[in-house]
Amino acid sequence: MKISDSSLQSHTGSKVSWGLLLVLCGAIFLEGIDVSMMGVALPSIRADLGMSTSALSWVVSAYVLGYGGFMLLGGRAADLFGRRRMFLVWLFVFLVFSGLGGFATEGWVLIVARFVTGVAAAFMTPAGLSIITTSFPEGPQRNKALLVYAGTAAAGFSLGLVTGGLLTSVDWRWVFFAPVVLALVILLAAIRLIPGSGRQERSSHGFDIAGAVSVTGAMLLLVSAVVNAPDVEWGITIGTLAAGLVFLAAFIIIERRSASPLMRLGLLRSGPLVRANLGAILLAGSFFGFQFVAVLYLQELRGWSALETGLALLAVGIDAILAPTLTPRLVSRFGNIRVIFGGLCLAAVSYALFLPVGLDWSYAAMFPTMILTGIAFALTYGPLTIAATDGIAEEEQGIAGGLLSTSIQFGAALGLSLVTAVSIIATGADGSPQTMLEGFRTALFIPVAAAVLGAAITATGLRKRNVLQNIK
After folding, report:
1. pLDDT tens track for 17-61
2. How far apart are CA 310 and CA 302, in angstroms?
3. Cα separation of 410 and 344, whole Å?
4. What is the pLDDT of residues 282-330, one digit of tens each?
5. How many helices (H) and strands (E) does the chain have?
6. Residue 455 CA: distances (Å) to CA of 42, 43, 349, 370
7. Distance CA 291, CA 314 (A)
8. Reduced to 3 states, what is the DSSP secondary structure of residue 209?
9. SS3 label, residue 355
10. What is the DSSP string of 231-277?
């Protein structure tokens, strides 16, 4: 017998609910570890498959393009066609195409496999997040569940850096095969532990095909413009951005006239939701931009191995410990907005501490940035997840989760593109170590600026909250 999504809440506080959370945390851990392992394995992939630098970048870009391009569609599909169904189907697709990537003997096969894997993650992730937000009642229990979920995602990314180095030292193909094994275990557990979910009532009015096509086209074009900006002429980038904005405008017009819109535009009138998504864009942009610069500095300038680089970044994984332990207490005492603001301020400080990086820096000099970055991420990522879904109706939790995940992916792509472009411009044609170092230092201003801007946007929520308290 199938259980509706709304009845999932009856399991709250039971062993079933926390077993369900464990399965969903396993899925987001899988997504995090898959992304981070890939970054460490890229040099080995290029050497084995003979890929050019531009082709190699598409191994990463194809995943981001699929993920960011289809995320809103994935979130709405979970609301309309059943969260359990979408989660299981796309987890299976993720499993299959991750395995296909491991068997690739040509670069284009690997790129296609990564694109489809990204699409699978775009449908799977918002479905998993919306299952959590509809399984736990709004308040302390949901906040705790979301913080555990966010901490697990961060742990997957952090541990993936080390795991990727270990697996790559054996054979880079294990970077693809290991997620297949983990995904199979999660799939079998999910079939047993995730209750059936009937189709949502609004789906009876039909699926907004025009809205789905326009928003997916807009996301694909916008993300593509950002991802490819460092490698193409400015005219192509501007043209792609303009086309993306045209699709986005068409989407808005369609949604205003649709009887059953893909995304109710009224959602964007929520100040906390908008601030949370802007914060997510800037957090992801700063974090992934810094990580990209740090990896290039350690491997290309200092000559560290993939494993040594992963171990150096392992300190960032402190967020996996703090997110489910310290962060809930801080949120309970100070509220989401203050914790997010503090986390973004700390992120700005941590990146700024890396600005004077030198050719002979010891790890002791780098460690403060690594540990503070992990603490900042722990204070920010989970509370942003709560803020982006708090107060949203159950039938729109999927689209809210999809919007947040889209913001994170778009922010990551934007941060990577900006630091890459700035580094290339600052370095110029001179490939000397000192010039490369200056390029990295200049690029590091991007993460610092993004974190400061995120803190400033969050501060507007602090002011509004203080005004409301004074009125009361």
Report:
1. 778 889 999 998 998 888 878 877 877 888 898 887 667 777 877
2. 14
3. 18
4. 999 999 889 888 888 888 889 888 778 878 888 888 887 888 788 888 9
5. 17, 0
6. 33, 35, 12, 20
7. 12
8. helix
9. coil
10. GS-HHHHHHHHHHHHHHHHHHHHHHHH-SS-SS-GGGGG-HHHHHHH
- Decide if domain 5-198+260-471 falls under CATH 1.10.287.990: no
Neighbours of 434 (CB within 10 A): 10
Spatial contact of 419 and 292, defined as CB atoms under 8 Å apart: yes
Phi, psi of 78, deg, nearest 5: -65, -40
Q: Which two tokens stand for residue 361?
A: 């820096």
Q: Is the dihedral of CA 280, 281, 282, 284 positive or negative?
A: positive
pTM (2 decimals)? Answer: 0.81
DSSP state letter for 298: I
Q: Which residues contact 15 (CB under 8 A, 6 or more apart)?
A: none
Residue 451 in contact with residue 351, Cβ under 8 Å?
yes
Q: Would you place residue 93 in the very low, low, confident or very high pLDDT band (cuts 50, 70, 90)?
A: very high
Name the CA radius of gyration of the chain, rounded.
21
For the chain, the helix, strand and coil percentages under 3-state DSSP, each to the nearest 5:
85, 0, 15
**Which two three-digit tokens encode residue 110?**
């690997």
String of DSSP letters for 429-441 = T---HHHHHHHHH
Provide the 8-state DSSP code for 55. H
Please give the Cα distance from 265 to 281 (Å, whole number): 19
Please provide the size of the chain in residues. Answer: 472
Question: What pLDDT, in 10s, does the model give residues 226-257?
Answer: 777 777 788 998 999 999 999 999 988 988 88
Question: Contact 140/153 with Cβ under 8 angstroms?
Answer: no
Give the span between the Cα atoms of 304 and 165, in whole angstroms.
Answer: 11
Q: Both tokens of residue 301?
A: 């300038």
Q: How many CB atoms lie within 10 A of CB 297?
A: 24
Q: Output the six-digit token pair for 11.
A: 């399991």
Question: What is the DSSP code string of 270-294?
Answer: -HHHHHHHHHHHHHHHHHHHHHHHH
Q: What CA–CA distance (Å, rounded) separates 329 from 346?
A: 18
* Look-up of token digits 């979130």: 75
For the chain, the domains span 5-198+260-471, 208-259
- Count of beta carbons in the 10 Å neighbourhood of residue 268: 13
Torsion angles phi and psi, residue 393, rounded to 5 = -60, 150
Strand, coil or helix: 102: helix
